[in-house]
Description:
Blueprint: H1 3-15, H2 20-47, H3 50-63, H4 67-107, H5 115-131, H6 137-140, H7 144-162, H8 166-179, H9 187-203, H10 205-218, H11 234-237, H12 243-256, H13 263-278, H14 293-310, H15 319-335, H16 341-353, E1 361-363, H17 368-376, E2 378-381, E3 384-388, E4 394-399, H18 404-408, E5 415-419, E6 422-423, H19 429-436, E7 443-452, E8 455-464, E9 466-469, E10 473-474, E11 477-478, E12 486-487, E13 489-491, E14 496-501, H20 508-521, E15 526-530, H21 539-547, E16 553-559, E17 565-571, E18 583-587, H22 594-607, E19 613-617, E20 625-631, E21 639-648, E22 670-671, H23 676-690, H24 712-715, H25 720-749
Parallel strand pairs: 14-15, 15-18, 18-19, 19-22
Antiparallel strand pairs: 1-21, 2-9, 3-4, 4-5, 5-6, 5-7, 7-8, 10-14, 11-12, 13-14, 16-17, 16-21, 20-21
Helix pairs in contact: 1-2, 1-25, 2-3, 2-25, 3-4, 4-5, 4-7, 4-25, 5-7, 5-8, 7-8, 8-9, 9-10, 12-15, 12-16, 13-14, 13-16, 14-15, 20-21, 21-22
Amino acid sequence: MSRLTTIRCLTVLAALGLSSLAASAQVEAVAEHDGRWSEEIWTSAKSGDTDQLDAMLRELHERESTPLAVGIAGDIQLYNMNIAKREADREARTAEAHAELGERLSEALDDPAGFKLGEALVLTMELIELHGGPLAASDLMADPLVSEAVNRADAAAKQAEAAGQWLKASELFYRLHVLFDVDKRYQGDIDRLGRRLSMIRLYAPEHYWSLRNARRLEAGESELPPYNAMGDSYEEKLKGLDKWVIIQSVGIAGTRHVDGQALRQMIAAGIDGVETMATTSELAQTFTGLQDSMATQAFLTNLHSIREKWQQPETGLSQRDLSRLMDDITDLSTQTVGIPKEAVLHEFGNGAMTVLDDYSTIIWPDQVRRFERNTRGEFIGIGVSIQHDELMQIKVVTPLEGTPAQRAGVRSDDVIVSVDGQSTAGFTLDQAVDVITGPKNTKVTIGFEREEDGETVVKDITIVRAAIKLRSVKGWKRTGASEEDWNWFVDPDSGIGYVRLSQFTASTARDLSNAIDEMTEQGLNGLVLDLRFNPGGLLDQAVDVVGEFVPSGVVVTTENADGVLTATERIRHGSGRLGDIPVAILVNPGSASASEIVAGALQDYAERGQLDAIVIGQRSFGKGSVQNAWPLQTKARAMLKVTTQYYRLPNGRLIHRRPGLTEWGIEPDLVVDMLPSQNQEAISLRREADVQPLDENGQIIVSDEPKANPDDLLTKGIDLQLETAVVLLKCRAAGLQEARAVGDVESGSS
C-alpha cells in the first residue's frame, strides 16, 4: 500500500464515522497483516516449499479483502491457471510422447539409416524432461519402451561406427549421451567420433559436405547448396604452425592443469590423436600417402613403438625431449605416409588435450579471432547478425544499430550472396563470419539479394570494417532503434524491473549500472535478474555486478585440486544500492561460469540476511573452474587455454561439476520447471521481440506484420519461471511498501 493509498483509506474510514486515530489503527492493522502475509509467502518460496507457497497464494487470492490481495489477485489467478495448464499439458504430452515412442520403435525395424531410432531417442529425452530432467533418467529405465529404445540405439551406434558410418554413429551416441548426462557413460564415444568428424571437416571438407548431404537426402530433406571452398583450406588455417606450439602447450598444460595430469599421459593421448588421423579412411583423398596400405601400416607400427618408448617411467621431460618427440613423429610421417607436419602437429595437440577437461584446449591460429571476440564483447566486422534460412543461405537477422552495415543500408532479411566477389552458396556460418570479419578499417564488398517492389534485386555494397560492440545487458521491451533503448519494467505499475544479462563482457557492469540508474529514477520496487542461457565471461565483470547488490565482501575464492586456497575475489568498490530491493534471480541449465558465480554469491549473501533475494528456475550448468589463457610464443598466432583452479562461493560451495559428483552448479531456492515446448517457444519469442529491423538511416522499418510481444511470455503462460518471479516480487514489494507507508503515517501523526 502506497502512502497515498493509506491516506485515502484513512479518509474513507473517517467518513464512516471512525476517528482518525481509530482509522489509523485499523489501517495499520491491515497493513501489518498484509506485510506479514507477504513475508510468509516470500519465506515459503525461498525455502522451496512449493505446497505451502501454492496454498498461501490460493488463500491470498480468495481473500480479496486487503490492499495486497486486491492488488495481486489477478496475477495470482493467471499464475494458478498457467500452472494448471502446464500440468495438464505435461500429462497429455507424456501420454502422446509415450505412444509416439512405441510407433517409432516399430518403424525403426524397417529403417536401416537409423533416423527412426534417433527420433525414438528424442522422444525418450522429452519424456525425461517431462518427468523431471536428467536425474530422473534412471527412474524411466524401468519403462520397457524406454529401455528398448536405449538398448537398440546403443547396438545400432556401435554397428554404425564399426562400419565407418560416422554421422549415423555420432547422432545416436550424442543422443544417448544427453540421456545419460549425469553418469557420462557415453562421453568417450562422442569424444572419439567428434574428433574423427572434426578431422574430416578440416582436411576433407568437400567429402564432409558429401556425407552431410547424403545424410540429409536419406532423411528425405532437400539437398545442401553446392560445397563452397572459400576460406575453407586447411593449409591456410594451419599456416605457420610449428612444433613449438605443441611443445609449449603440452609443457604448460601438463604442469599447470588443476588436476595435475602427467605429461606422459598427454603424450600418449597425442599419439592416439595422430593414429586416429591415419586410420580415418576419408582423409586418404587429401593425404594420398594413406592410400598405400603398406606405408600406412609402417607408420602405425612405428608410431606404436614411439608411444612405448615415451611411456617408459623416467624423471621429468624437458623442452628438448618434447622437441625430439615432435621431430620423431613428423619425420616418420614424411618417410611413410607424407602427411604434412602441420596436420600431424595439429592432431597431436588436439589429442594431448583430451586427457584434461572439456575447457582446456589449444586455440589454433584460425580460432584466435573468434576466441577474442567471445571474451572481449567486441569484434572487428560490419555489424550484422546472421543465420541460415530454410534454403541454407546466409540471411541477415538484423544489422546492429550504429554499425557500418546499418549505415550502408543493410536490412533484415537481406541474403548475403557474395563476399568480395566470391559466392557464399554452401557457406557454413563460421565460413561467413571468417570472411566477413577482418582487420579494422579494411574494406569488404558484400553482395546482397533482397525483395523490392515484388522483384528480387542484387546490390553490391562496399563497407569499411570497424569495432563492433556487443551489448550484453538487455531489458524487457525494445523501445527504439538503439541497442540501449529499452523499457526496463516488466510490470511498470508495481515498479518491477527486468534485466537480462546475455554474457559478461568488458562493458556488462557499466551497462547494468546505467540500466539501474534509469530504473531507480522511475521507481524501482523489485528486480528480475535473468541469467538463463548466460554462458559466462569475464570474472571482474561478475564481481562488479555483485557489487551493485552488496557493497563489500568476498564474491568467490579459487582453490587447486587439493583444496588449497589460491586467490580471493572481493568487491572493491560496490555500491550495494540494490541491497534493499527484493530481487529474483533466474537460472537454468544454460547458466554457466560467471553467471553461476553471480547467482551463487547473491544466494549466499541472501542466506546471511545481507540481501533480499531468491533464486528461481532449474539447476545451473556447473562450470565453476578457472581457465588461464597464454599467448604462445610462436610464428603462428596461437593461444593455450587451461583449467588451473576451481571456484568456491562465499559460503564455501563448489560450483564445478567434477567427475563422480551428483551435485553441482547453483540449485535454485525455488525450483520451477518448464515443459520442452515452453522453453522452445520462450526462446523463439524472446529472440524475435529483441530484433528491430533498421534502414540505412537507423530508423525502424515499419511492417504490417504483427511483432512478437514479450508480454505473451506472461499472459500466455509460456515462461512460468519469469511469471513466478514477477508474482513473488509483486507480493514482496507490496508488503515492504505497506510497512514503509505505515511508518510514514505514524511519523506524520506524531
